[in-house]
Amino acid sequence: MIKKRLNIRMSGLGGQGAVTAAHVLAMAANRDGKFSISNPFFGAEKRMAPAESYCRIGIERIYDRGELVFPDVIQVFHPQVITMGKSYTMPFYSGVKEGGVVIINSAQPLLSEEDVQRLKDLNVAVFYIAGTELAIEVAGTELSTNMAMIGSVSGITKCVTMEALDGALQERFGKKFVASGGTASLDEAIKKKFAKKEMLLAKNLATVKRAYEVASEWAEKNKIELRVGNPAVAA
Amino acid sequence: MADTHSVIGTKNKKGQTYTDTWKMMNEAPRTPSFFTGSEVIKEAVRRASCDVMIAYPITPQSEAAALIGELFAEGYIGDYFRGESEFAVMSQCAGAAFGGARVFTTTAGPGTMRAMENFPMWAGARLPIQMIVTCRGINSPLSIQPDTLEIAYLLNTGMLVWHAETAQDFFDWILKGYMVSEEPDVHLPLALCCDGFFVTHTKDVVNLTPADMCLPPYDPYRSPVPCMDMECPPVRMMRDPFVMKSNYISYATHASWQQEIWAAIERSRKHSIHWLNGLIDAENTDADIVIVASGTAVSQGREAIRLLEDEGVRCGLIKVKTLRPWPEEEIREATKNAKHIFVPEFNVTGWLAKEIRATIPNHQRVHAGPHVCGGMTMPPEIIVQEIKTALGMKSFSLAGRGS
Fold first, then answer.
1. How confident is the model at residue A176 (pLDDT cuts 50, 70, 90)?
2. Disruptive mutation site among B201, B207, B303, B384 for chain A (greatest number of A CBs within 10 Å)
């Protein structure tokens, strides 16, 4: 399916970098010459509390902002979004569009039979990726989980190029970035994990790439096609 | 003495060139940047030749306030400090402005409410302070998400009140705002509002003016009342205040001064039209259906119009840029052909719809809604649904969140 607009909802927990993930993805799309907007949605800034972010990518100017009520892609950054209802919606996939994709960061299946059936009825594909394990393996820290999530959505939808992601990561982490106190302290924490800033960038990019490949392979094998483009031209 | 015109072309201590504001905003090259609204506020303030910024943390303006602290550290602002509360901040802003400084501050939601006493005081004292209001919920239960109820409280303070749709509006209007509010025949504070998060925390493309150009400094001698002199009527407030006399003259002075403040808002029209290219933006207002909105509701309206077009329904759009001065004539003219006027709003009371109803003939044309409140998002689909339902068109019920 080729769509004029790809709406991505990232449901995570505070501290996982869901907000940063949406920003980086939107920055990359912007670098690719597409139109994009990203924004976060959260309550109190605390670890493990529900936090969401949204990334809209399209081929024409995007005005829509705020919570993404009708997403094409839903990314679940943490199993507790599903198992403990740490989501702004119950169930976490409500509003998902027909033909959409759900990407879940988990090594094992988490959905009930009822959920599996409802998503099947909507023709929504479900992709599990052990993103945290992948981050620990490639980058050596679970703090790079969000990079695995960026890679997985990019691998399936090809909404951004790796080149643009590389540039966006450099822009985000290569210089001093001031946001809230919470974000600033997390930035400090991740920088301490790596000896040098270049190492941080290289490992994060490697995590993105690995997840991109895994997800891309899954999408090809299962013939999942969800792209941003001009449907008229494609037809 | 800082003179607004003689310094143009000279450099400030950061090496920025004081530039004619019209040239800077309309003729200088622009660089597209992909920034959050908070970063854009910082970039506007960098170019605004601000003397004083006073900060207090409250979501969603905290990031902007912190970023302006960075600007101070870099040497772009005369002075910057944190107040003890929003009330203290706004009082300190008054002090700085009385002293002849160009003052900038940011607030949100409950902070705006806490500081409220100061706003009519600013207007009465004719202090051209600029205050960014990043709207959020004000009522209990607590919400930090956008809700525009606080704007309703600002409408009768005597301040100029503008409502930005995007970060681009914000960037341009922060700089242009000083030009309007510092005019001698206006000289009033400006509440420059936006919907928190949807503008402040959203990354979007914004075209910035060159960083080495800045506004001419504020010239306090253009004030219509003597600066820092509380002894001179009509703002003799400290010693021997009118209120203590309770005589005819004191009542007459107070009454006429209130009229003068509102006359100054009226006089700001011509400047606002000049700088903002009109108090409203109107598109396709020959259509039977027109959406009238301010802030983010305009953006959601634009998306709803696209969805309606796909179904063959034509709909016009009026973006209300200034709430004070209120664009009465403009709205009356732009809605004259409309049979149905929809007013989507991010608040429970529908204050914008009420203002519009009080402005136009045949006000039964106004459909007040849809409304979302308490920080809810307004998907364009619900605007479409509201319009179709009102027109008796078939509309599928939406299975979104909470369903």
1. low
2. B201
CB nearest to A65's CB, from B34, B202, B205: B202
Torsion on CA atoms A66, A68, A69, A75, rounded to nearest 10: -150
Inter-chain contacts counted by CB atoms under 8 A, chains A and B: 81
Instruction: Please tell me which residue of chain B has the smallest CA distance to A26.
Output: B203
Q: Where are the alpha helices (DSSP H) in B182-319?
A: 242-245, 248-276, 296-310
B219 in Cβ contact with B187 (< 8 Å): no
Contact (Cβ atoms closer than 8 angstroms) between residue A135 and residue A145: yes
Instruction: Please name the residue that has the structure tokens 């003016």.
Output: B209
Chain centroid to CA A28: how far? 12
Q: Which domains does chain B have, with CATH numbers?
A: 17-222 (3.40.50.970), 280-390 (3.40.50.920)
Segments forming the whole domain that contains residue A18: 2-234
Q: Is the ipTM of this complex over 0.95?
A: no
Q: What is the enclosing helix (H) or strand (E) of B130?
A: strand B130-135
Residue B12 half-sphere exposure, CB side, CA atoms within 13 Å? 23
Length of chain B: 403
**How many Å apart are CA B347 and CA B150, to the nearest integer?**
9
Tens of pLDDT, residues A136-155 = 999 999 999 999 999 999 99
Q: Looking at the complex, report in whole angstroms how far the Cα of residue A164 sits from the nearest Cα belonging to chain B.
A: 13
In chain B, which residue's Cα lies nearest the Cα of A177?
B67
The whole-number pLDDT of residue B233 equals 53
Report how far residue A20's alpha carbon sits from residue A12's, in angstroms, rounded to the nearest whole number: 11
Q: What is the pLDDT of residue A153?
A: 98
CATH number, residue A109: 3.40.920.10
Residue pLDDT, tens place only, A76-131: 999 999 999 999 888 999 999 999 999 999 999 999 999 999 999 999 999 999 99
DSSP B62-122: HHHHHHHHHHHHHT-SSEEEE-SSHHHHHHHHHHHHHTT--EEEEE-HHHHHHTTTHHHHH
Chain B nearest C-alpha distance from A217 (Å): 31
| Section B358-368 average pLDDT | 97
Alpha-carbon distance of A66 to A87, in angstroms, equals: 16
CB contact under 8 A, B34 and A180: no
Chain A positions touching chain B (beta carbons under 8 Å) = 23, 26-27, 30, 35-41, 43, 63-67, 69-70, 88-89, 94-95, 178-181
Q: How far apart are the first and last CA of chain B?
A: 64
Task: Name, in order, each residue with C-beta under 8 angstroms of B299's C-beta and a sequence gap of 6 or more.
Answer: A63, A64, A65, B165, B166, B198
Looking at the structure of chain A, the number of domains it has is 1
The pLDDT, as a whole number, for residue B403 is 38
pLDDT tens digits for range B82-128: 999 999 999 999 999 988 999 999 999 999 999 999 999 999 989 99
> Which tokens is B41 given?
């506020």
* Record: contact B401-A89, CB cut-off 8 A: yes
Q: Which of A164, A161, A150 is nearest to A215 (CA)?
A: A150
Q: What is the pTM of this model?
A: 0.92
